[in-house]
Amino acid sequence: MSRAHALVVVAHPRPDSLTAAAAARAHDRLAAGGWTVDLLDLYREGFDPALRPDDEPDWGDAAKEYSAEVRAHMARITAADLIVVVFPVWWWGLPAIAKGWVDRVWNRGFAYEPSTLHGKRMRWVGLAAGSAAHYATHGFDKAIDLQLRVGISEYCGITDATVHLVHDTLTEPDVTAIDEIVSSTTVAA
Question: In angstroms, what is the C-alpha Rg of the chain?
Fold first, then answer.
């Protein structure tokens, strides 16, 4: 029987960032819990978030073959039982590189129409400078949850998806919250 496999995606330009530390912690906790883990650092790997015609969905051809770079990322997603995306919350959403990864890779004929992602699990982990109270007061927490959990994950067939915001990261950075997030994801599906 093969071990469960996780893809941990990190989206921050600095390798010494709190986001990178949180992704490393998620990687380590998952590995310690029996997972094999693929760490995808979008910046370190030089991912280009710009959507060009060769990766744009073709509404007349659901079987369109996308670029080699996108197909390689699709293969990494396909291999994963669990996808954990760790990102800084910028302008109350994903950073451009993470949004570009979704735009280019989570494409028609792979992620939707039809989806090949049913049965996968997903954890979105956003590091937010603001307090939980500030996010709740303005509805940012609900907006981010709706966009990521429903608008991306569930739209693409991933029903076991959660969004976790780690707040107060400028004043009280604590990546131990990652422990609870990944510990709640057991190896057995």
Answer: 16
How many independent structural domains does the chain possess?
1
Nearest to 22 by CA among 89, 94, 86, 92: 86
Query: Do the beta carbons of residue 82 and residue 120 sit within 8 Å?
Result: yes
13 lies in some domain: yes
pTM for the whole structure = 0.92
How, if at all, do strands 121-127 and 160-166 pair?
parallel
Tokens of 5: 């496999």
Q: What is the pLDDT of residues 55-98, one digit of tens each?
A: 999 888 878 899 999 999 999 999 999 999 999 999 999 999 99
Give the CATH number for residue 133. Answer: 3.40.50.360
